[in-house]
Amino acid sequence: MSADPVPGGGFAAVFGGAPDGVWYAPGRVNLIGEHTDYNDGFVLPFALAQRTTVAGRRLDSPQWTVHSVLTDETVSFGVDELAPGAVTGWAAYVAGVVYALRTDGFEVGGAELYVDSDVPLGAGLSSSHAMECAVLGALADLSAVDVPVARRPRLVQRAENEYVGAPTGILDQSASILCQAGHALFLDCRDMTGEQVPFDLAGDGLALLVVDTRSPHRHSDGEYAKRRATCEAATATLGVPALRDIGQDRLDDALAALPDDVTRRRVRHIVTENQRVLDTVALLRVGEVRAIGPLLTASHASMRDDYEITVAQVDIAVETALRAGAYGARMTGGGFGGCVLALVDADAVDTVAGAIRDAFASNGFDQPVAFIGVPSQGAGRLA
Fold first, then answer.
1. For residues 12 and 112, what is the distance between their CA atoms, to the nearest angstrom?
2. Which sign, positive or negative, has the C-alpha torsion 67, 217, 209, 360?
3. What is the structure's pLDDT at 1?
4. Boundaries of each Galactokinase N-terminal domain copy (predicted)?
5. Whole-number Cα distances in Å, 225 to 35, 92, 221
6. Residue 177 CA to chain centroid, in angstroms?
């Protein structure tokens, strides 16, 4: 959690004077649709109230200096260091955005940037993308460069893929930039068309409990890359552009054509997960929010058994939430740790969160941190 009560309020202490503006981008929760984005599939994220802020001031020279409140570090880089890999650590995400913008023809100039955030780190809530999206907004405005909103998710993805070296899909960036308050974003990751689907939890007496299991979560490790490579190999074997093109009606035939059980299970997760997204959207369109619970739980089982990306902490959190009365629960994010979400009655939040804390204590796990996920507004400018 940020120690700075005023967004950008510490800018003067680091850089002197006042910033030209303050920009923000939120973290996100993916309600359902995991690992479907890089398979040209469907996702359904919403933006969180937790966000990253970037206070910025334009420089006349092509030099970028960024200070992180969370690490209390200041890093500077110039044009010569915009080659992928030249800047490392957390500052690589900032350099990657500059790289993506400039290589795509947007001549953003130098800047001083002051980065703060209350998005939990390493929890699978897209803290890195929140920073990148906020930095992109700041750089575009500081340089008076018109970067169409529709292009921004792809630019952030390029920063991650080409500069940072993380093989991420398009989900996180899109959620951070495009989501609207009170809605979930139904996104087709092939053509980037989206629909704002009403997601009025409070109006139905419900809450979405988000539980940070405090287990390590890493997107750029080898396991994520392995899952993506397996999907790409399967598409080649099946002769389709992407696994999104295998519908439920073709699943059995597709599985029979695959060479091994691991590949079959990976493909089955993607195909069934896409269908679960479509089914969830159909229910939300008619206001049947409670009815999505079993789809959330089925998604978790698929991630656990077929995609094999869960860990003990998230499995126990899901099982405990369901026993405590949740309508449905699942891990959210890329996997191998991170957060669990549970759809609960609003008056049962404390009961479910307490049950999970007790279960973690009994298993010798670090204590989780729970909060209510509120569908919030995507990236913008504060000042």
1. 11
2. negative
3. 42
4. 11-58
5. 11, 19, 7
6. 11
> Both ends of the chain: CA-CA distance in Å?
21
Distance CA 147, CA 105 (A): 10
In which element (H, E) is residue 234 found? Answer: helix 222-238
Average pLDDT over residues 343-369: 97
Beta bridge partners of 63: 78
Q: Residue with structure tokens 């001549």?
A: 107
Cβ 162 vs Cβ 84: under 8 Å: yes
Which residues is 183 bridged to in the sheet? Answer: 198
**Which residue in the block uniquely carries the two structure tokens 């802020």?**
53
Q: Quick one: CA dihedral 49, 153, 224, 255, positive or negative?
A: positive
Domains of the chain: 11-196+377-381 (3.30.230.10), 200-372 (3.30.70.890)
Contact between 294 and 320 (Cβ < 8 Å): no
How many CB atoms neighbour CB 76 within 10 A? 14
pTM above 0.85, yes or no: yes
**Could you tell me the two tokens for 249?**
């009606």
Name the active-site residue from 172, 245, 261, 347.
172
172 labelled catalytic:
yes
Is residue 211 classed as helix, strand or coil in its secondary structure?
strand
Spatial CB neighbours of 16, under 8 Å, sequence gap ≥ 6? none
Encoding tokens for residue 270?
A: 């993607």
Q: What is the 3-state secondary structure (H, E, C) of 148-168?
A: CHHHHHHHHHHHHHHHHCCCC
pLDDT above 70 (res 201): yes
Q: Which amino acid is at 34?
A: E
Structure tokens at 293: 């619970």
With CA atoms as reference, report the closest residue to 312 among 349, 280, 360: 360
Nearest to 56 by CA among 138, 132, 145, 141: 138
pLDDT, one tens digit per residue, over 5-54 is 456 679 999 999 999 999 999 999 999 999 999 999 999 999 999 999 99
Measured at the CA of 223, the angle between CA 357 and CA 228, to 5 degrees, comes to: 120
Contact 230, 38 (CB under 8 A): no
